[in-house]
């Protein structure tokens, strides 16, 4: 095995830079929030709520622009049967951020929540919060594992070093600076990583475009040269699948703790919205070099390159098209710089997911469900331990399981089908309760898993209209097998069924208990009769700061004296009376508390 010394040196320098920035951010902000009495655990989770537009815009963009995003976009543009028409991630995620900014960022930020699960526990109780934690955790862990797996493969293509070693080193660095500095370290390293991704990929593109083996990409977009045009097309029979996948990206990209961690760390609700719009623009800009690299791959006569006569798609290496183009169509020094960009993309997403998972566990499971009297120091230690545990789990999965992508596809579908409709209900629909939430959870899960998952060899037990069978080669075993392909948009239908089930069952339970059709003693979830039992989180339990401030009385954030953006903070006592009344009317749970 040949070791590329220049490549190793380039990666070592890059990793040391990231590590230095992460430790510097932790040191710079080690006393953040102390003067205002903000808990250290909350500072780790939401960075003292003083993340500005520059760092915030970068960190939110970097969370989406990961290894899967830049590799996957290039892969889909390159694949003959798909092309640009099926590279949905850039527009899907950009629209997801726009929708999140327009409708979700403001209510979440203005109510002062600390994690995405807070509103669920406030309205549906701690047990339901624990149930919703499961798909959220699975999504974050499998996402981290999938991108670490992609990193190992990418590094091995260009540098020819042991895949396992590269994955472990990358994961250890990300875990270390996340442990030390929490959100501050993650946010500041994201700025460096996004800059490296942008520069690294844009430096590579001109060299690859001018390589003699590459045809004019404007010609290969519409004409068949070495393979079918890279512009791609959507066949009529696949229209519903295309729409289903696009809705999954656009709406399923919202209910992730990695997104809300940034929203809730913004210095005001308006800033949270602006950050979302900036990140949407950033996602589109960062996808351009990936699209071009995919197009270059589709326009290359591989026989003229050092790669060999057989094209990557025929060697089942289409998912590696980005590192292959960097290595075989660019000079060595350029390909190593591009490689740094890819590893940057991976670390910028992996650290965010690990921090998000540990934040939700420490706050919503450990503190609010089991140890409400836990000290701040105890919660900080729980976070540190879980950062290490979840980071370790993701790394082990990246190394051991061959089906990590299949697991991620399924878990991201469950986030879309289960958590998104519940988030809609908890923020915008008055009167939903725990009975509806449990029913929605079961409906969504049953309908989605019933559709099967070919990647995991999970056969369907619900055959939706228009299903068909295809012979496909299994990516791990290489065996040809018959798989059921669902042409029906069953993921979006499952999501809608989950949402409608929540509303219908909630109102039915409310009617049955309040009308006396069912005796109050059978309200075993305490969801209708005694809304403020020990099970349902009351307002002050969720906001544990100095003198417990009720969420309804809470300002958007407690202004930090050290922050120059103090003017951007919103205090309810300075708002016009009409605005406060409008806000209270818009709160989905205000009716519950009025009855109290």
From TrEMBL:
It is found in: Presynaptic cell membrane. Pfam families: SSF. One of its GO terms (biological process) is acetylcholine biosynthetic process. Keywords: Glycoprotein, Ion transport, Membrane, Neurotransmitter biosynthesis, Sodium, Sodium transport, Symport, Transmembrane, Transmembrane helix, Transport. GO terms for molecular function: choline:sodium symporter activity. It catalyses: choline(out) + n Na(+)(out) = choline(in) + n Na(+)(in). Its main location: membrane. One of its GO terms (cellular component) is perikaryon. Gene3D superfamilies: Sodium/glucose cotransporter (1.20.1730.10). The chain crosses the membrane at residues 7-27, 85-105, 131-159, 165-184, 191-209, 239-259, 271-296, 333-358, 379-400, 406-428, 435-451. It comes from the Eukaryota. Residues 573-596 are annotated as: Disordered. High-affinity Na(+)-coupled choline transmembrane symporter. Functions as an electrogenic, voltage-dependent transporter with variable charge/choline stoichiometry. Choline uptake and choline-induced current is also Cl(-)-dependent where Cl(-) is likely a regulatory ion rather than cotransported ion. Plays a critical role in acetylcholine (ACh) synthesis by taking up the substrate choline from the synaptic cleft into the presynaptic nerve terminals after neurotransmitter release. PANTHER family: HIGH AFFINITY CHOLINE TRANSPORTER 1 (PTHR45897:SF2), HIGH-AFFINITY CHOLINE TRANSPORTER 1 (PTHR45897). Belongs to the sodium:solute symporter (SSF) (TC 2.A.21) family. Homooligomerizes at cell surface. Interacts with SEC14L1; may regulate SLC5A7. This is High affinity choline transporter 1. The gene is SLC5A7.
């Amino acid at each position: 095995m040949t070791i590329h010394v220049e490549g190793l040196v380039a990666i070592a320098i890059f990793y040391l830079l990231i590590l230095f920035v992460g430790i510097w951010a932790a040191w710079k902000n080690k006393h953040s929030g102390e003067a205002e009495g903000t808990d250290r655990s909350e500072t780790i989770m939401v960075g003292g709520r003083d993340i500005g537009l520059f760092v915030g815009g970068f960190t939110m963009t970097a969370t989406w622009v990961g290894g899967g995003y830049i590799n996957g976009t290039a892969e889909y543009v390159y694949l003959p049967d798909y092309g640009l028409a099926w590279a949905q991630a850039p527009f899907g995620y950009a629209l997801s951020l726009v929708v999140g900014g327009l409708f979700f960022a403001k209510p979440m930020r203005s109510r002062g929540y600390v994690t995405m699960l807070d509103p669920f526990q406030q309205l549906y109780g701690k047990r339901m919060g624990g149930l919703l934690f499961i798909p959220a955790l699975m999504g974050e862990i499998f996402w981290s594992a999938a991108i670490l797996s992609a990193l190992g493969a990418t590094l091995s293509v260009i540098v020819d070093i042991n895949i396992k070693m590269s994955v472990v080193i990358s994961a250890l660095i990300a875990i270390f600076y996340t442990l030390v500095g929490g959100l501050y370290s993650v946010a500041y390293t994201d700025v460096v990583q996004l800059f490296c991704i942008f520069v690294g990929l844009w430096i590579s593109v001109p060299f690859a475009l001018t390589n003699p083996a590459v045809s004019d990409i404007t010609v290969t977009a519409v004409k068949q040269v070495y393979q079918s045009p890279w512009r791609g097309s959507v066949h009529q029979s696949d229209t519903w699948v295309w729409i289903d996948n696009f809705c999954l990206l656009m709406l399923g990209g919202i209910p992730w703790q990695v997104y809300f961690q940034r929203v809730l760390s913004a210095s005001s609700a308006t800033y949270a919205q602006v950050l979302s719009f900036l990140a949407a623009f950033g996602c589109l800009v960062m996808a351009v070099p990936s699209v071009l690299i995919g197009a270059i791959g589709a326009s290359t006569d591989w026989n003229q390159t050092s790669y060999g006569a057989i094209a990557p798609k025929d060697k089942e290496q289409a998912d590696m098209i980005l590192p292959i183009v960097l290595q075989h169509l660019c000079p060595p020094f350029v390909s190593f710089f591009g490689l740094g960009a890819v590893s940057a993309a991976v670390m910028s997403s992996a650290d965010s997911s690990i921090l998000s998972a540990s934040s939700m566990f420490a706050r919503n499971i450990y503190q609010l469900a089991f140890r409400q009297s836990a000290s701040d120091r105890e919660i900080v230690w729980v976070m540190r331990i879980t950062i290490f545990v979840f980071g370790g789990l993701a790394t082990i999965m990246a190394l051991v399981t061959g089906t990590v992508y299949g697991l991620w596809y399924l878990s991201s579908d469950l986030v879309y089908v289960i958590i998104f409709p519940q988030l809609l209900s908890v923020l915008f629909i008055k009167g939903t309760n725990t009975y509806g939430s449990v029913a929605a959870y079961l409906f969504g899960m049953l309908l989605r898993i019933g559709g099967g998952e070919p990647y995991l060899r999970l056969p369907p037990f619900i055959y939706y209209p228009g299903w068909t069978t295809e012979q496909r080669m299994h990516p791990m075993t290489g065996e040809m097998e018959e798989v059921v392909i669902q042409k029906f948009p069953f993921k979006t239908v499952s999501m809608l069924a989950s949402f409608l089930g929540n509303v219908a069952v909630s109102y039915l339970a409310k009617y049955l208990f309040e009308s006396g059709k069912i005796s109050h003693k059978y309200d075993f979830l305490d969801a209708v009769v005694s809304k403020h039992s020990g099970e349902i989180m009351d307002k002050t339990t969720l906001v544990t700061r100095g003198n417990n401030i009720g969420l309804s009385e809470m300002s958007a954030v407690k202004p930090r004296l050290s922050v120059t953006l103090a003017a951007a903070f919103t205090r309810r006592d300075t708002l016009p009376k009409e605005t406060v009344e409008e806000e209270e009317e818009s709160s989905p749970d205000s009716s519950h508390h009025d009855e109290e």
